[in-house]
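Backbone-to-sequence.
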């Protein structure tokens, strides 16, 4: 199988960087993108990195990959990661749905984090939501047995959709979100909490 071409100049040995891949049709080899081969967790939609950077700092024994469409946000992730001298953090500018379907190898991830994705509240736009029936199948594909999808949103309608599609997929079982994980909040979550807006959480583990 052909290997994806990754520019080696942006994978230094001692600092997190924004990766620049030269192919978007070949699957990545995550172990080649980090200083050490470790269990991999992925955040789809990393925002400014408030969650991802802090969680990566708490867990140097894991590798973390942040996916974000907006370059300005990824640059914030990069600056924060470099400032903390994290070696277990990488970021890539690409659409989350494409990344999980075409670039992540099967069984390569121990956890997927999806926090406050765009709710697309208008009915005619709901087809654009990331979490749907197709997503559950893709999540099952990339997760290792026992791997977990962690979800957060402030939108009641989207939360209902999230829980419904995962409940309908018999390859997943609901699990509790660890307290330690819940306490690491995103940039959106900080704003919502300040405004008294409730965070809805769910988590689902892939059956062994």
């Amino acid at each position: 199988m052909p290997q994806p071409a990754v520019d080696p100049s942006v994978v230094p040995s001692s600092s997190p960087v924004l990766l620049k891949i030269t192919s978007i049709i070949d699957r990545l080899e995550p172990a080649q993108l980090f200083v050490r081969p470790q269990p991999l967790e992925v955040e789809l939609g990393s925002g400014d990195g408030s969650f991802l950077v802090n969680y990566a700092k708490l867990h140097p024994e894991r590798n973390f990959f942040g996916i974000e469409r907006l370059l300005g946000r990824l640059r914030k992730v990069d600056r924060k990661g470099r400032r903390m001298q994290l070696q277990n953090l990488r970021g890539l500018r690409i659409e989350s749905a494409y990344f999980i379907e075409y670039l992540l190898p099967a069984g390569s991830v121990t956890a997927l984090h999806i926090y406050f994705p765009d709710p697309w509240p208008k009915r005619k736009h709901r087809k654009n939501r990331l979490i749907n029936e197709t997503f559950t199948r893709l999540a099952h594909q990339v997760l290792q047995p026992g791997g977990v999808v962690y979800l957060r949103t402030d939108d009641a309608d989207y939360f209902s959709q999230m829980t419904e599609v995962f409940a309908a997929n018999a390859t997943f079982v609901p699990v509790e979100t660890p307290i330690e994980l819940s306490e690491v909040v995103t940039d959106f979550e900080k704003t919502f909490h300040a405004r008294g807006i409730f965070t809805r959480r769910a988590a689902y583990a892939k059956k062994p």
